[in-house]
Amino acid sequence: MGLDVMVTLGYMKRTIYDADHESFRGSVAAFLDREVKPNLEEHAANKALPREFWLGAGAQGFLGLEIPEAYGGSEAGDYRFNAVLTEELNKVNAALGSCVGIHADITAPYLVELGTEEQKQRWLPGVASGEILLAIGMTEPSGGSDLAALKTTAVRDGDDWVINGSKTFITNGYSADLVITAVRTSPEKGARGITLFAIPSDAPGFSRGRKLDKVGQDESDTAELFFTDVRLGDDHIIGDLDGGFIHMMQKLPQERLGCAISNTAHATQILLETLEYTKERQAFGAPIGTFQHNKFLLADLFTRIEVTQAFIDQCVIAHDSGDLTSVDAAKAKWWSSQIQNEVIDHCVQLHGGYGFMNEYRVARAWRDARVSKIWAGSNEIMKELIGRDLGL
C-alpha cells in the first residue's frame, strides 16, 4: 500500500504528478517488488545492499536521473522523477531510500555540475550503471554538523595533494568506490579554505573501519573512513580549489528536501499499514480502530501527514523551478522528520506489544526514523538557520 492508495481512499488528492510520473512510479515499484522485497532480510543481515541491487537499479535507469544522456544517464530534467523514486524507495524502508539518495540524488550532482569534462567521462557512466557506487564524506568524529570545523587536510607536495584525516557516519562508506570528500586545503582561510576531492577507494592510503552498528537502518552500510597520506592530483579536485564550503552549501537544499520527501513517504506508508491493522485487530469484541481514542488519534495522524505532504509537494515544485530557498528546505527537513517520528511512535503504540517486536515492520520503521532528526543537519541546526532568517 502506498501514496497512490491514499489518493484512491480519498484522504488526499495530490496534483503535482502527471501520467509520466505515475508510469515511472509503477516501474520503480515493480522493480522493488521483484528485486528488493524478497531479499530484505539478507540485506539487513549483511548491513549493506549488494552490488546486484545497484547494477539492477542502474540498468533500469533509476541511478541516472541527474546524469546527462551523454554520460550514460537518463537526465530526467524534472526533479519530480527524483521525488517519485524517493517515495517508492521509502515505502519499502528508510535505509533503501537513504542509500540510493546518497548515491543518485545527493552525490552525483556534484560530479555533474562541478566536474570537468574528463571527470564526467571517467566516472559518470559507472555512476549511472551502478558500477561505481558513490558516498559523500563530510562528517568527522569531532565535527558533527559544523562543516567549517573540518580537520581532514590536503597539503600540496609537488604536483600532488597529500590527504590525511578521517570521516565517520558515512552512508555507503563500506561499499563506495568513489567518495566526494571535504578537506581543508587552506587552513588560514577558515570555511573558505575547504576543497572537495573525489577519492577512489582503491587509492593507496584509503581504508575503511568496520560497518557501524546502528540503532536502525540495518540495510544501510555505514562506515568510518580513514586517509593516510593519500596522494591525488588536481584531476581529483571537484569544483573550485578552496570553494568546497560554498559548493556544499549550494547542494544542501536538495539533500534536505530529499530527506523531507523520504520522511513523509516513510511515515505515510507505516500509517496506512497501521490503519489496516486497527481495522483487523480485535479487542473487547470490536476492531481497535473503532475505539474513540484510537479513532481520534488516527484522524489526528492523517491530518498531520496530509498537511506535511502538502508543504513538501510545494517545496518539490519550488525546487523543480529553481525557487526553493535554503530556509524553506530547512523547514521541510526538520518538520517532516518531527512528524515522521511522532506518527510512527503512535503507530507502534497502536500495534501494542507487537509494535515492539522487530519482526513487525512498524518496529523497524520506528528505529529507522530516529536518525532523520540528526542527519543532513540536526533539527536544532535547522531551527537555528530559520531563526537567523527571522533576524534573530
Q: Would you kindly provide a written description of the structure presented here, covering whatever features stand out?
A:
This protein is of the alpha+beta class and 392 residues long. It folds into 3 domains: 3-132, Orthogonal Bundle (Butyryl-Coa Dehydrogenase, subunit A, domain 1); 136-242, Butyryl-CoA Dehydrogenase, subunit A, domain 2; 246-389, Butyryl-CoA Dehydrogenase, subunit A, domain 3. It is built from 12 helices and 10 strands. Strand 2 (153-157) and strand 3 form a beta hairpin. Helix 10 packs antiparallel against helix 11. Mean pLDDT is 94; it is low at 1-10.
Spell out the CATH superfamily of the largest domain. Answer: Butyryl-CoA Dehydrogenase, subunit A, domain 3
Helical residue percent band: 40-55%
Reported for the largest beta sheet, the result is: 4 strands, mixed
Our count of domains comes out at 3
SS content category? alpha+beta
How many DSSP helices?
A: 12
Please report the distance between the alpha carbons of the first and last residues. 43 Å
Low-confidence parts: 1-10
**Rounded average pLDDT:** 94
- The order of strands across the largest sheet is 1-4-5-8
Globally, the shape reads: globular
The CATH first-level class of the largest domain comes to: Mainly Alpha
What integer value in Å does the Rg equal? Answer: 21 Å
Topology, number of strands? 10
The SSE string, one letter per element, is HHHHHHHEEEEEEEEHEEHHHH
Percentage of β-strand residues:
5-15%
Task: Just name the CATH architecture of the largest domain.
Answer: Up-down Bundle
